[in-house]
Design brief:
By secondary structure, the protein is mainly α. It has one domain (7-68). It is built from two helices and two strands. The protein has a two-stranded antiparallel ribbon. The termini are far apart.
Amino acid sequence: MTNRGFTINERGQLNRFAIEPKVYVDETPQTGFTQYAEKLNGRLAMIGFVSLIGLEVLTGHGLVGWLTSL
């Protein structure tokens, strides 16, 4: 009998039902100052800054003047 993806466990029993997947553990940190978090934070800050400039151009007032005129 040829071995076609079957595995044998530690007791010598043949597992004919499934090929056990390779386990992969990602060791990179996923919290804190990751590259993705920094890019997202920078892009959101740029959107906010451009939005404030656009608000000032459209209304003729700065952010504080616009908020107090409401």
